[in-house]
Amino acid sequence: PLKMPAEEGNEDLQEGEEYPDGEDEPEPEDALCAELTMEELKAAFRLFDDIGEGFISGARFRQILKEIDEEFTDEELDEVIAEIDLDKSATIDFQEFVKLMTL
Question: How is residue 20 annotated by DSSP?
Answer without folding.
Answer: P
